[in-house]
Amino acid sequence: MSFVLRGVSVRHASAERRDTSHALSDVSLSIDQGEQVALIGPSGAGKTTLLHTLACAHPPVSGEFSAFGVEPWAMKHTERHALRARLFLAPQTPPLPPRQRVVTAVLAGCLPQWSFWRSIASLIRPSDAGAAYDALARFNLQDKLYARVDRLSGGERQRCGLARLLVSKADAFLVDEPLSALDPALSLQTLTTLQQEAAARNATLVCSLHQVELALGNFPRIVGLRDGRIVFDAPRAEVTDAMIAALYRNARHDEDGDHAVQQSPEGVCTHC
Ligand SMILES: Nc1ncnc2c1ncn2[C@@H]1O[C@H](COP(=O)(O)OP(=O)(O)OP(=O)(O)O)[C@@H](O)[C@H]1O
């Protein structure tokens, strides 16, 4: 089992003190090694928080959480650090130093398995440019190997961040909205590459997506989150249009207070 959460609640350390709500509330979830799971839900639902919790970045305020059979928050800091090397968290906006060459940025994905001295040496002369080239080629970015990161487009930067994941040796890929800067054709190609890599090494893939169609069309298991809670956790064949509509229903009222607005997953008002 990759991850087990039982009644997990998470509160952001930077949340306002008077704000007593939780970013995740009473979340229970089990994810097997090698499973591929899509997280969907409206903005602010808690998808990123859940991914960060799985990556051992946020300690739960209550509940039980284990990753690969151990409890990260009961471990020593150094042990937890070692555990994190098995988890690759790909944020929506990858933290790539702007003046760095793409090759160096991609090879940062190897740092958890490299020695200190090899890591330092690779900053001066990339120690495995071939691996970076191969990873970039899977996203059609091989010609950017020696480009500077700040000369990449948003979509290229996003795929450069994902190429890091390919060179890592992680056992779980935790990927936050990997397609937000990509056009539809590139989105499908990028998602396919991620899924193929996860399947080839039996890595667990948990991926948050705003593209509900892509989630339903490509992932065997769908978890719907809203207001920090799991609304449904089902095989894709069991996810109905009504479940999706309820997940994204926006019950806010306009200024007159009498016009309930419903939003589709793409944020288009379907009521008017
Ligand atoms: N650093 C933070 N400090 C305080 N509250 C936060 C922080 N990050 C997120 N939150 C709050 O936690 C809740 C869940 O946010 P989260 O980013 O996990 O949602 P999300 O589903 O990933 O949203 P989106 O689809 O917009 O990225 C929201 O209410 C958000 O305002």
Protein architecture, described:
With 272 residues, the chain is of the alpha/beta class. It folds into two domains: 1-86 and 172-239, P-loop containing nucleotide triphosphate hydrolases (Rossmann fold, 3-Layer(aba) Sandwich); 94-169, no CATH class. Helix content is 32%, strand content 20%. It is built from nine helices and nine strands. The strands form two sheets. It has a six-stranded mixed beta sheet with strand order 5-6-7-3-8-9, sandwiched between helices. Helix 5 (129-137) packs across helix 6. The longest helix has 17 residues, at 184-200. The model is unreliable at 251-272 (pLDDT under 50). The site of adenosine-5'-triphosphate has 12 residues, from helix 1.
Keywords, separated by commas or semicolons:
single chain; 9 helices; alpha/beta; 3-stranded antiparallel β-sheet; 9 strands; disordered C terminus; binds adenosine-5'-triphosphate
